[in-house]
Amino acid sequence: MASLSTTFILLLVTVSASVSAALSASVIEDLKSLKPPHDFNTTILKNCQHNPSLRYCSSSPMDLDEIFKSTIVASHLCNESKNPNCVESFPKIDLQNDPKMVPLYLSFNFFWKYCPLSILAIDLSNNSLRSNFPVDVLQCTQIQALDMSHNNLFGDVPIESFSPLTNLTLLNLSYNHFSESKISDIPFFKRFNSSSFLHSGLLLDGKKFRIKAVLLLVGFPIFVILMVCCLGWLCFRRPDFLPRMLRPKNRFTPAMLKAATNGFSKKSLMGKSESVDIYLGTLRDGADVRIEIYRGERHPTLIDECKILVQLCHKNLVNVLGWCNNRRLKAIVTEWMEGENLEMWLMGSNITPWSHRLRILMGVVEGMCYLEEWPEVGYDLRTSSILLSNNLEARISRFKIRDQSSSRNRKMYKFGVLLLEMLVNRRPEEEFERGEAGFIEYIRMHYPGNLQKVIDQKMELTQNTFDQAKQAIGLGLMCTDASSNQQVSLGQVFDIMSRAYQSCRVLASHNHERLHSERGKGHRRMQSR
Ligand SMILES: *[C@@H]1O[C@H](CO)[C@@H](O)[C@H](O)[C@H]1NC(C)=O
Ligand SMILES: *[C@@H]1O[C@H](CO)[C@@H](O)[C@H](O)[C@H]1NC(C)=O
Ligand SMILES: *[C@@H]1O[C@H](CO)[C@@H](O)[C@H](O)[C@H]1NC(C)=O
Ligand SMILES: *[C@@H]1O[C@H](CO)[C@@H](O)[C@H](O)[C@H]1NC(C)=O
Ligand SMILES: *[C@@H]1O[C@H](CO)[C@@H](O)[C@H](O)[C@H]1NC(C)=O
Ligand SMILES: *[C@@H]1O[C@H](CO)[C@@H](O)[C@H](O)[C@H]1NC(C)=O
Prior knowledge:
CATH class of the largest domain: Mainly Alpha
Shape: elongated
CATH topology of the largest domain: Transferase(Phosphotransferase), domain 1
Strand content: 5-15%
Radius of gyration: 47 Å
Number of domains: 4
Subcellular location: Membrane
Structural class: alpha/beta
Largest sheet: 5 strands, antiparallel
GO molecular function: ATP binding; protein tyrosine kinase activity
Domain Protein kinase: 264-529
CATH architecture of the largest domain: Orthogonal Bundle
Bound molecules: 2-acetamido-2-deoxy-beta-D-glucopyranose
CATH superfamily of the largest domain: Transferase(Phosphotransferase) domain 1
Protein name: Protein kinase domain-containing protein
């Protein structure tokens, strides 16, 4: 031991003697500015002759620069570690509670490579070191004590690198975050008890480790299975609980519909026919929907049709939201319309002025124009199938997919009947012996001279609006006239209706101005074509 210290002194004396004036500067500055003295090679050789076990003696070729730098670091570190007399000995590295300096010293790997043999204890505890285990430190194989407790070291402890430290009797790795591993099987660590590894992630106790391992081995698969089951349950039964991104669009499951209708409760049942039950449901997002549940095998193409209908999107069409295609349950989900249908509206006792009827008709025409782009979608135009929103926006419902009977002419005919029905306010099917044909004949008989008799009184027409209504009846008759080639196109109907609608609005706003000396309001977007 004495000879080792002597060697160390020899070296330090040499360095200190030549550079003592500059040593007060910081370590890094010293490392940059100081150069080995001329006779440094001689000093080293002498030292090695004296004590061949010195670390730098076995390195070949000798890097004199590196060896010199390591002596500079050594002299700083010895002083920093509060060794009583650094000129004589360097027994311990004490960098406890010194978080600023520790990373710097750990970065000088040349120092650790030539770790002075006199060092017997290293204390790096309580420094919040956030890194892997500083393996370089273990090159000081002669040490007897190593304290790395109270840091944030993580990763694996380099177990093999410990085995050369045969004289190590005090080890403290407590309070770190090493990867959990079992060290009880490694002979080297048998000499330490658990107080060396408190809260370090390392486990001396084999039993505890085994329990943890078993728990993990059994627990993790169970956890995964549970998660998969849970996800599967969500996907197949309640996809509305999934995040919006993962939710299948338009697909409703029986469980979703059941939840929306309080288990298909009587209170939610709004209507019933021989093949369809109609429910009012509330989805998880709060939207009210109409759920039509089909019984029996009568609708084999229902779902295919729905897949087309969900693509339709227009303010004058009832929005089809999706479908449920389950072995036990076939259903179509559409938006819920709060208002009444056109038939009920016409039959009501309120005054229903021409301008309101025109607004509804305009909506129907706009919806029909949009549907021109969907030749495969037919629809059943009648007063009972037109739903009205609260602000009298018409919504066409009851679509038919690939319905051969609804040709272009047929559609115009049905529109003509609807138009006439709205002006006359009589039900062709119920009030006329020959149905629609009788109804049209009845109007034709009174056109154009005797219209006062047939026009609905509830419109309260003025002179101006009477002319418009008369024109509209003319248009309706043209649309229903299948015999001649006079039948008008939808485009023409749109132009005529929108002109009438505009002028009616102008009239209305003039009246309004006269009455209230202020400009009439109420904007209506016309669909541009
Ligand atoms: C030391 O290095 C010097 C040149 O820097 C050289 O002249 C001398 O011979 C060397 N001494 C030994 C013992 O290698
Ligand atoms: C050693 O540290 C003391 C303060 O602890 C300082 O005054 C002295 O200059 C240092 N010596 C060297 C050689 O760095
Ligand atoms: C560890 O360091 C903190 C400050 O960094 C200090 O408050 C605490 O007393 C130290 N603990 C020990 C055991 O030295
Ligand atoms: C351990 O200590 C003994 C006696 O002090 C010494 O001979 C031996 O070299 C030391 N072992 C290591 C690895 O330094
Ligand atoms: C663990 O070892 C240390 C010294 O290495 C000793 O002071 C302590 O009493 C031991 N603890 C137990 C529980 O054996
Ligand atoms: C290691 O350090 C912790 C915390 O400072 C302490 O409780 C424990 O007794 C130490 N273990 C040993 C073996 O010194």
